[in-house]
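Input record (one chain):
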Amino acid sequence: FVGWHLTEPRAGGVFAAPRRPRSLPARRERAARRGLALEAASVLLWRGHTVFITGAARELPRAALPTLATLGDQRRLSGPATARALRDGALAAALYDWYRAGYLCPA
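The corresponding structure, as predicted from the sequence alone:
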């Protein structure tokens, strides 16, 4: 409950999903060059294997946590860090879903 509550969007927090989201392979190429960043209203926290972002929870492998810690703490991932993250199937799927929901944007 605390993870959901602390990451719940604040009043006025707006997330604009991309009008024409790129496919995962196209997104992977662009993100590997530019990196990814959290949208201004996004909040990312984790506890154990559970990652909370903007009021939603997702279970991810422990190996994904260092990358998510960087994203949560620095609010962005560099191009090389993004390229490494997008090689992990579960983490790549989560990042792509969050991009499509408007929680992430190109850095």
